[in-house]
Amino acid sequence: MSKLANISGKKAAKAFQKAGWKVLGQVGSHLMLTKEGVRCNLSIPQHKELSIGTLRALIRSAGIKVDEFLKLL
Fold first, then answer.
1. Where are the alpha helices (DSSP H) in the chain?
2. What's the burial of 33, exposed, middle or buried (CB within 10 Å: 0-12/13-18/19+)?
3. With 0-12 CB in 10 A as exposed, 13-18 as middle and 19+ as buried, what is 70?
4. Counting Cβ atoms within 10 Å, is residue 28 exposed (0-12), middle (13-18) or buried (19+)?
5. Which one of 8, 17, 38, 67 is least enclosed by Cβ atoms within 10 Å?
6. What are the Cα distances from residue 70, in Å, to 3, 22, 61?
């Protein structure tokens, strides 16, 4: 399994958008993303660095694998 690094929330949001997620809006410092056919929304904190645990949870919620996410970066 590839290693995740600390990346910014902005960079993570761009990677998820490449995977087909659309921006729904922003609530405070969190960007909300939605995807047709997926029941959950992603709430991505717009911080300078996301913790690895938060990033891993977002990837799991999106239904993709870590390697796939790293290719989108």
1. 9-18, 52-62, 66-72
2. buried
3. middle
4. exposed
5. 67
6. 9, 19, 15
pLDDT of residue 2: 61
> pTM to 2 decimals?
0.89
How do residues 29-61 score in pLDDT, each as one tens digit?
A: 999 999 998 889 999 999 999 999 999 999 999
- The CATH superfamily label for domain 9-72 reads Hypothetical protein. (3.30.920.30)
How distant is the alpha carbon of residue 58 from its chain centre? 5
